[in-house]
């Protein structure tokens, strides 16, 4: 697969061969994901401390631009949970003017990252840091929904986690039975729908059933109308955000946080999109499109936006083929805003809280925690610190400390790969076992090698194997003799490669691991991805194992 053009949006190449059949797929997917985005956009806005229509405006304006200008074929953009905590903090300290300024500044930085080719710099954030952020943000989002889920009577919910939990605990006696039962029922519907079928989004079913139930039985629950007075009907109005020069420096730290979160989540979402659709995104074009979307969003009363993993996955499962599906998703939301806005005011907030509970759980990457705990003590410590700072301190602090930890971890790993040892007869003899010149390579085997430390920042180099996937023979050998060190990010890349090769009907063999990579690979039970027999000590053994696999067909 050839790398994509440098600064050409995906929609340009997609439209060159566009057909009516493709449009049919995109139309179905776009309408479906638009309906899924409806409650999420409003819920994320409410959780961020702004009116629900701000989330819709973001999904419409930024979602349209991300699909039109981005570098991913099936990426869906809009407001996401990653921004909830930081947006709420900005609004509390600096008001909406500060939020709009921060979003514009973050948009400028994202455009610079994309236009200068620095979008790939995001890969220098190690996996424990990313997982720590994600886990922490998921916990924070869930904690902000407890009030509405149980219908608690709290005048003002504290912004900090511990005071918030204390306030919720002391107010639990004000629990509303109607809100709790309605939210619990909707939560049950979503969970059951996830297990029964993925073709019908459970959040949409829960939204309609919950709203209709509240209307029919006149349940005493808080709704969008009772708290916000409804949602304005009509097109998002163009407005020039107030520019306040004195806020530039106070907002700089938050701007960097929004930029980093936007870049990380959009590229993670694009990677998920690639795996599900078989495409390959252009990270620099994607970040440029994301930046332009964030530049424009505040002019229509919108929030920061980025790629949304869950909506992107829904888009692909619904049959999306090109970025046109993303455009239709935005137009679907616009149609709802123009013709059905009065109905949205009837949505109970406890229903939106139930939906966000599921979103926070799904975005939490909880299944990654056991894998992290099997890593080195340094990786575990980085994950714990990042998670704790995200939850108990401040997301901005967590980003800054996470980057410092990433740099220190990288320096530590690189310096630990330097060795000095005497050349002996045993050393020479050991080297012969790994020499390509002394081994006969059978037909049906391709050999790749990793040279140097395989750490975060270098793990994407393994994509060279996936790029050749269609031409690869049945057995692929990765020679690790000269791979001096590996971390959890590099290991994750190897796991993904193993899964991709397995899905294509091919076998992966790892051979010649040094001490540190060997210990980590054994500790993390890597054999579950390729089988114990496919991790061997030398190239000679790898060729023997390859012959066995080829004989088995």
Summarize the structure.
The protein has helices at residues 10-16, 20-47, 52-69, 84-115, 127-150, 161-170, 177-196, 202-216, 224-228, 248-277, 283-296, 309-317, 324-339, 341-344, 349-363, 369-373, 377-393, 395-416, 425-432, 463-467, 488-503, 515-523, 527-530, 539-552; strands at residues 77-78, 306-307, 445-449, 475-479, 507-511, 535-536. By secondary structure, the chain is mainly alpha-helical.
* Total individual domains: 2
Strand residues, percent: under 5%
Based on CA inertia axes, which overall geometry fits?
globular
Distance between the termini: 26 Å
Mean pLDDT: 88
* Biggest β-sheet: strands ordered side by side in the sheet: 3-4-5-6
**Tell me about the biggest sheet?**
4 strands, parallel
Detail the poorly predicted runs: 1-5
């Amino acid at each position: 697969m050839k790398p994509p053009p440098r600064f050409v949006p995906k929609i340009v190449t997609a439209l060159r061969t566009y057909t009516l059949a493709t449009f049919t797929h995109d139309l179905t997917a776009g309408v479906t994901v638009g309906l899924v985005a409806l409650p999420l956009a409003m819920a994320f806005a409410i959780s961020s401390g702004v009116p629900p229509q701000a989330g819709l405006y973001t999904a419409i304006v930024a979602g349209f631009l991300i699909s039109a200008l981005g570098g991913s074929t099936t990426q869906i953009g809009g407001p996401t949970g990653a921004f909830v905590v930081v947006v709420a903090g900005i609004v509390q300290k600096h008001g909406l003017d500060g939020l709009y300024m921060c979003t514009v500044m973050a948009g400028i930085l994202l455009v610079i990252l994309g236009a200068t080719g620095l979008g790939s710099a995001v890969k220098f954030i190690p996996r424990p840091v990313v997982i720590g952020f994600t886990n922490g943000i998921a916990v924070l989002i869930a904690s902000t929904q407890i009030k509405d889920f149980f219908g608690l009577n709290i005048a003002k919910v504290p912004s900090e986690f511990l005071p918030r939990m204390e306030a919720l605990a002391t107010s639990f006696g004000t629990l509303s039975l109607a809100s709790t039962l309605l939210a619990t029922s909707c939560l049950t519907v979503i969970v059951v729908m996830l297990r029964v079928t993925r073709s019908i989004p459970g959040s949409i079913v829960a939204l309609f059933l919950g709203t209709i139930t509240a209307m029919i039985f006149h349940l005493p629950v808080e709704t969008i109308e009772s708290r916000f007075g409804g949602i304005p009907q009509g097109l998002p109005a163009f407005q020039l955000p107030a520019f306040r020069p004195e806020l530039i420096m106070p907002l700089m730290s938050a701007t960097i946080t929004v930029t980093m979160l936007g870049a990380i989540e959009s590229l993670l979402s694009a990677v998920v999109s690639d795996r599900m659709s078989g495409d390959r995104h252009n990270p620099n074009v994607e970040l440029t499109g994301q930046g332009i979307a964030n530049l424009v969003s505040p002019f229509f009363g919108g929030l920061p936006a980025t790629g949304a993993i869950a909506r992107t996955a829904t888009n692909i499962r619904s049959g999306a083929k090109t970025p046109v599906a993303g455009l239709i998703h935005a137009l679907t939301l616009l149609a709802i805003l123009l013709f059905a806005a009065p109905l949205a005011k009837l949505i109970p907030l406890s229903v939106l809280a139930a939906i966000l509970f599921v979103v926070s759980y799904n975005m939490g990457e909880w299944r990654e925690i056991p894998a992290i705990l099997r890593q080195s003590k340094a990786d575990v410590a980085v994950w714990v610190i990042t998670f704790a700072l995200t939850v108990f301190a401040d997301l901005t602090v967590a980003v800054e400390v996470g980057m410092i930890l990433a740099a220190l971890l990288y320096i530590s790993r690189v310096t630990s790969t330097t060795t000095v040892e005497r050349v002996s007869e045993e050393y020479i003899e050991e080297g012969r076992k790994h020499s390509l010149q002394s081994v006969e390579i059978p037909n049906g085997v391709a050999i790749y090698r990793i040279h140097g430390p395989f750490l975060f920042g270098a793990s994407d180099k393994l994509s060279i194997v996936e790029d050749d996937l269609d031409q690869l023979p049945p057995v692929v050998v990765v020679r690790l003799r000269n791979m001096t060190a590996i971390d959890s990010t590099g290991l994750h890349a190897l796991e993904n490669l193993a899964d991709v090769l397995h899905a294509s009907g091919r076998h992966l063999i790892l051979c010649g691991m040094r001490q540190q990579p060997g210990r980590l690979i054994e500790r993390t039970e890597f054999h579950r991805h390729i089988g114990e027999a496919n991790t061997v000590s030398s190239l000679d053994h790898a060729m023997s194992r390859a012959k066995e696999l080829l004989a088995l067909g």
